[in-house]
Amino acid sequence: MRSVAVESRYLTHSYQREAPEGEMKTLLRTVGLIAVVAVAAPSLMAQWPDYPTRNVPMTPDGEPDLEGSVPRTYWGTVDFSGIWERQRRRPQGAGDGPGADATAVPAAPATPPEPAAPAVPEDGIPNATFFDIGAGFENGVPYTPWAAEVRDQRMADNMKDNPDANCLPMGHMQFHLHPQPRRIVQSEDIMVIIYEGNAGIREIFLDGRPSPDNDPQPWWYGYSTGEWDGDTLVVTTTGFRDDGWLDVNGSPLTEQGKIVERLTRTDFGHMEIVVTIEDPMAYTEPFTVKVNHQIMLDTALIEFICIENEKSVRFFDQD
Amino acid sequence: MKPESLLVLAVGVGLVIGWTFTPSPVLAHHAFAAEFSRDLPLELTGAVTRLEWMNPHARFYINVEDEDGELVEWDFELSIPNGLMRRGWTRNSLKEGDVVTVTGFRAKNAPNVGNASTVVLADGTRVFAGSSADDEN
Fold first, then answer.
1. Beta-carbon separation of A309 and B56 below 8 A
2. What's the CA gap between A5 and A17, in Å, rounded?
3. How far is B3 from chain A (nearest CA, A)?
4. What separation in angstroms does the CA of A155 have from each of A148, A244, A295?
5. Are A87 and A294 within 8 A, CB to CB?
6. Nearest CA in chain A to B136
7. Mean pLDDT of A200-212
8. H/E run at residue B94
9. What is the pLDDT of residues B3-17, one digit of tens each?
10. C or N: which end of chain B has fewer Cβ atoms within 10 Å?
11. Does the CB of A246 have a partner CB in chain B at under 8 Å?
12. What is the C-alpha to C-alpha distance for residues A282 and B115, in angstroms, rounded to an integer?
C-alpha cells in the first residue's frame, strides 16, 4: 500500500487530508486512486525508484499529514531538514505528462501570460514572486533613483545578464523562489541548503559566530549566521557582491546589502520565510516580503550541471 | 439552474481547463526575450535527428524541408530536463526519426533556432508540452 500511496502523491502533489464520509465516498476514492495509479504507471516506471521519506506523520486515511506537528531535532530545535519547493499557485498534474491529450493543448499564446499579483496574506506581509520582488506592494519596492535605473536597464536588456541565465549563482531571493527544489541539511552548528537550480550551496552558521568584520571578500551568497528566536531561525547575511539580482526583473542588491531571513516551519509540510532587505544604496528604506515553501516527499534532488550544454547565451541579443 | 448561472459555470469551467492545459512558452533560462521573439511564432514539421537531454535545457533537432526542397536542420530548446523528468518524460520520449510538428518562437539572432512550446508526434501524441508552465507562476 505504501508504494501506491507514494505514487499517487508524487503524481498529483495533492496532499489534502480527506475525512472518510461513508462507503460510497470510500469506493469512489479507491476507484479514483486506481485510475490515477493506472494512468501514472507508465511515466512512473520511467523515473528512478522513489524512496519513501521517513518519519512522515500520517492521517487515519494513510495519507501524509502535512498539517501534522513540526519535527524537532534531538538537541531540541525545530528540524527544517527535507526537500522543499516554493508553494505553487496550481498543482503540477498528470496533464503535463505522457498520455495527455494533445488536442486539449492550444498553441502557445503570442503574448506572455501576465503573472497575477499575489494575494496579500492575512499577516500583511506581501509575497514576493520570482520575477518581481515587489509584486505584492501597491507601488513596488522603494528603489533609490540609482536602483530604479539599474532595474530599468536590466529589463531593457531582456534580463540577459541575470546570473541565472548565465549559469551563475542567482542570489537568495531567486534561489528561494526558483521552481527547482532545494534540500535543507541541518546539524546543531550549521544549516546547509543545497539548491538544485544552478547547483547552489549555501552555508548558515549556527554556532554563535558573529558576521565577519574584517572586510571579507564579497560572495555571491554572502556570509550567513543564524540564531534561534523561539522556534524561528533568524538568519542574517552580509558580504554580498555588488551586482546582485533580487528577482528576474533585476532589482539590485549591492555590497551594502543586508538580508535577514526568518524561517518558520509552521507545520510538518509548510515553511514560511520572511525576508527583510536592507540596502541603502538600492532602497530608500528596508522592506519585508514573504516566501512560502512546501515539503516534497519521497523524492530526491536531480543533478543539475548548468554549463554542461549551455547554448542559449550565444544567441542572446547583445544590442 | 438559471441560464445565466449555467453560462457563468461554463465559462468558469472553461477557464479552469484552459488555464490548466495551456502551456507557457519555455523560458530561455529566465531570459526568454533575450533570445527569442514572441513576434516570430513558428510551426514546423520534420524528422528528429537527435535529442540532447542535458542541462540547462533539453534540446532536439529536426530536419525541415525549406522552400527549395533542401533539408535544413532546426535546433529547438525545451525546458530543463529535471522538470520534464518530474512530469514523466525521459531521454527516450523522443527518438531519432520521429516526425514531429513543433509550435513555438524563433530566435532573434540565429537562423533555424527556435523555442518549442508544443511538440506533437505524427499520431497526435503530445511530447514535452506544458514543460515550463510552472516557471512563470
1. yes
2. 13
3. 26
4. 11, 14, 33
5. yes
6. A115
7. 96
8. none
9. 555 544 544 444 433
10. N
11. no
12. 35
User: In terms of C-beta distances under 8 Å and separation of at least 24 residues, what long-range contacts does A119-126 make, across chains too?
Assistant: A121/A290, A123/A290, A125/A274, A125/A288, A125/A289, A125/A290, A126/A289, A126/A290
A306 close to B (CB below 8 A): yes
Q: Identify which of A177, A165, A13 has the alpha carbon closest to the alpha carbon of residue A95.
A: A13
* pTM across the whole model: 0.78
In this prediction, residue A191 has a pLDDT band, given cuts at 50, 70 and 90, of: very high
DSSP string, A258-297: EEEEEEEEEETTEEEEEEEEE-TTTBSS-EEEEEEEEEE-
β partners of residue A276:
A260, A288
Helix (H) or strand (E) holding A201, with range, is: strand A200-205
- Where are the alpha helices (H) located in chain A, listed in sequence order? 2-12, 23-45, 145-156, 172-177
Alpha-carbon gap, residue A125 to A3, rounded angstroms:
39
Top-confidence residue, A70 or A3: A70
Q: Give the residue among A170, A131, A180 at the shortest CA–CA distance from A296.
A: A180
Query: Across the interface, which of A93, A131, A316 has its CB nearest the CB of B34?
Result: A316
Among A83-97, A165-179, A265-279, A289-303, the range scoring the smallest mean pLDDT is A83-97
Q: B126: nearest CA in chain A?
A: A102
pLDDT class of B65 with cuts at 50, 70, 90: very high
Instruction: Give the cell for residue A194.
Output: 543545497
Instruction: Give the number of other CB atoms < 10 A from CB of residue A125.
Output: 17
For A96, which residue in chain B has the nearest alpha carbon?
B130
Higher-pLDDT residue of A246, A35: A246
> Is A183 in contact with A83 (CB distance < 8 Å)?
yes
**Disruptive mutation site among B35, B76, B89 for chain A (greatest number of A CBs within 10 Å):** B35
In degrees, rounded to 5, the angle at the alpha carbon of residue A296 between the alpha carbons of residues A290 and A300 is: 125
With contacts defined as CB-CB under 8 Å, which chain B residues touch A89? Answer: 137
Interior angle at CA A118, CA A131 and CA A234, nearest 5: 80
Parallel/antiparallel/unpaired status of strands A270-278 and A258-267: antiparallel
ipTM above 0.90, yes or no: no
Count the alpha carbons within 13 Å of A303 in the hemisphere toward its beta carbon. 6
Residues 6+ positions from A227 with CB-CB distance below 8 Å: A206, A208, A233, A234
In Å, how far is B94's CA from the nearest CA of chain A?
11
Instruction: Please give the DSSP secondary-structure letter assigned to residue A72.
Output: B
Mean pLDDT for the stretch of residues B65-86: 92
